[in-house]
Amino acid sequence: MNIAIIPARAGSKRIKNKNIKLFFGKPLIFYSIKLALKSKLFDKVIVSTDSQKIAKIAKSFGADVPFLRPKNISTDSTITSKVLIHAAKKIELSNIKYICCIYPTAAILKLRYLKKGFEMVKKFNSDCCLGITEYDFPIQRAMQLKGNKTNFYWSKNKNLRSQTFEKLYHDAAQFYWLNSKNFLKHKQLYPKKMNAIKIPRKFVQDIDEIEDFEIAKLKFKSNYY
């Protein structure tokens, strides 16, 4: 038995009502709910929210909202693992093998990568499998800006060509497949026994600022229309 948990609090500051902001005519969270249901990977698709409004919208798209999340774990500083632990304790976990956290902003995630993540977490018996994507520019040539002055963070790299550096990746901020039993023991979203699925950048867009939201729309339009 598998469950999907979609954490979707109210009160986002940089983008007002981000999780239910209209995205091609549908609230942003619709796409994560739709993907989870379409995948047929889950016995339940649960939305964890502190908002009655978000709960109502989530239910209208077929998700379960069996509880409202307390305000003390619905703040800007609340880490995802605490939200998942709270949800897990609210649900009967005796028959649940895997929990999959899917962010409500994963509107351009392709179903095949969600399925590959599930296949990998089973194949390697890992505690977590997440989606990652390549940095669009070598971070080894990162620069600092202090006031009106700038310099290379790693000065030894300033005269090296970008092609010489190892490719590095970052969390795609889309999904995490978690071994339920082990997650409740170590309580870590990024445990030691972890592997990843590489996702092309065109299918990844973290949404924190309005600019990110607009870029996500461009990527969605390019990939789905």
Task: Write up what this structure looks like.
With 225 residues, this protein is an alpha/beta fold.
Number of strands: 10
Task: Please give the order of strands in the largest beta sheet.
Answer: 4-1-5-9-6-10
| Binned strand content | 15-25%
Principal-axis shape: globular
**What pattern of helices and strands is seen along the backbone?**
EEEHEHHEHEEEEHEH
Secondary-structure class: alpha/beta
Largest sheet entry = 6 strands, mixed
- Individual helix count: 6
Helix content: 25-40%
Uncertain regions spanning at least 5 consecutive residues: none
| Terminal-residue CA separation | 34 Å
Radius of gyration: 19 Å
The average pLDDT is: 94
In short:
The protein has helices spanning 28-39, 52-60, 80-90, 111-123, 180-186, 210-224; strands at 2-7, 22-23, 26-27, 44-48, 98-102, 128-134, 143-146, 149-152, 169-179, 194-198. By secondary structure, the protein is of the alpha/beta class.
Write the layout of secondary structure elements.
Elements: E1 2-7, E2 22-23, E3 26-27, H1 28-39, E4 44-48, H2 52-60, H3 80-90, E5 98-102, H4 111-123, E6 128-134, E7 143-146, E8 149-152, E9 169-179, H5 180-186, E10 194-198, H6 210-224
Parallel strand pairs: 1-4, 1-5, 6-10
Antiparallel strand pairs: 2-3, 5-9, 6-9, 7-8
